[in-house]
Give the backbone structure.
Amino acid sequence: MTVERLPIKPKRTKKAACPICGSPAGQSHEPFCSRRCKEIDLGRWFSGSYAIPAVEPPDGAELEELIEAAETARDVDDPD
């Protein structure tokens, strides 16, 4: 019994779009289409437009209020 192998066709991959202008990405500036779009993106990072928001820890006064509230809630629940 002979098994005939079919040729394997490579899957077509979609060309990624430039995240700045939406044009097809160029190979020399991938994932951007041009140097201009690449530099616009870099400028956005430097200016803080792409900053990841952070949760600020409570300062000393807020922390003391939270501790006092927790202690009073514990005292109310357990009068001993």
